[in-house]
Design brief:
The protein is mainly alpha-helical and about 140 residues long. It is built from 6 helices and no strands. It has 2 domains: about 35 residues, no CATH class; about 70 residues, lambda repressor-like DNA-binding domains (434 Repressor (Amino-terminal Domain)).
Length: about 140
């Protein structure tokens, strides 16, 4: 099976032309649409954390990526990229994924915020001097 070059397919898509004679051409009903899911050039720590949360919720329900993708209206490939932290999903996608997984969006956002800004430890009070000792010098 010959795979379609993503760049070539994107160029054909942009220009509205599909070269049916090219060696990588395959006729699929979805060929006019997005062939490759873009990945972010820079890995975001928040995207990785969000992906881990999504994967945890999905695995907790014993769902496959395909099942989650079908229910969320996404592709399994995009679910995999989100779970790996390879793309920062839009707010709409975040809300849809959490809703479909029956997760608590408040809890998810709290986890992400706490990871980004960990709570600072309480200041340690100075130790009190033992009873019977004085700090004055004579």
């Amino acid at each position: 099976m010959v795979q379609v070059n993503c760049l070539g397919a994107a160029i054909h898509f942009i220009h509205g032309v599909i070269d049916r004679s090219s060696p990588g051409y395959q006729h699929h009903p979805w060929m006019r649409y997005h062939v490759c899911v873009p990945r972010s050039r820079v890995i975001s720590a928040e995207a990785v954390r969000f992906g881990a949360i999504v994967k945890g919720l999905r695995v907790e329900r014993n769902w496959t990526r395909k099942k989650l993708a079908t229910r969320a209206g996404l592709t399994p490939q995009y679910i995999a990229i989100v779970e790996e932290g390879g793309n920062v999903p839009s707010l709409t996608t975040v809300l849809e994924l959490i809703e479909v997984l029956q997760g608590d969006i408040e809890d998810v956002m709290r986890k992400l915020a706490n990871a980004r800004n960990p709570p600072k430890p309480a200041p340690v009070a100075p130790a009190a001097a033992p009873a019977g000792t004085t700090s004055s010098s004579s």
